[in-house]
Amino acid sequence: IRKNLVKKCIELFEGIAEDKDNFKKFYEQFAKNIKLGVHEDTTNRKKLADFLRYHSSQTGDDLTGFKDYVSRMKENQKSIYYITGENKEAVESSSFVERLRKRGYEVLYMTDPIDEYAVQQLKEWDGKTLVSVTKEGLELPEDEEEQKKYEEDKAKYENLCKAMKEILD
Q1: In terms of Cα–Cα distance, which of 79, 55, 50 is closest to 67?
Q2: Among 1, 34, 66, 126, which one is least packed by beta carbons within 10 Å?
Q3: Which residues are 124's β-sheet partners?
Q4: 126 to 4, 45, 50: CA distances (angstroms)
């Protein structure tokens, strides 16, 4: 019975999701429940993840889902970037977000306490890994222009680095 109820509910959610205004009202009321489902229900995790909506660095006050986010991704981008925090204003003004915004990447703002737990279980969506911008060692994909500039700077400062190394040794 449980399996059929969950299946029927997901079908109803899909029907509601087609109408953006209705889904917005629905999501305001049941967002925590959907996120809890993503955290706890391993069999329906991928289906429930399609219903998740977040604010992002490009959508302003509108909410966006993973599907829309992926459609706006840069060609060389292989990950979905997100940040967790207390509220939209706090994460929006974060230096982590600023770094990605300068390079033209979109960042999802996860401001619900349950988001951290849900995203730990989700790990990826449609082959794209979810990457926290606050984690140590975040590497952003570089295009040829940035790579070329890095090589030029490296060559430009090579002598300085050698001199400093000799002094320190």
Answers
A1: 50
A2: 1
A3: 129
A4: 25, 12, 10
Rounded to an integer, what distance in angstroms lies between the CA atom of residue 129 and that of residue 57? 18
Q: How confident is the model at residue 63 (pLDDT cuts 50, 70, 90)?
A: confident
Contacts of 10 (CB under 8 A, 6+ apart): 44, 47, 48
Separation of alpha carbons 165 and 169, rounded Å: 6
Q: CA-CA distance, 102 to 142, in Å (whole number)?
A: 13
Could you tell me what percent of the chain has a pLDDT over 90? 0
The 10 Å Cβ neighbour count of residue 162 is: 10
**Tally of CB atoms within 10 A around 77:** 17
Q: State yes or no: pLDDT of 146 exceeds 80.
A: no
φ and ψ at residue 97, rounded to 5 degrees: -70, -40
What's the predicted TM-score (pTM) here?
A: 0.74
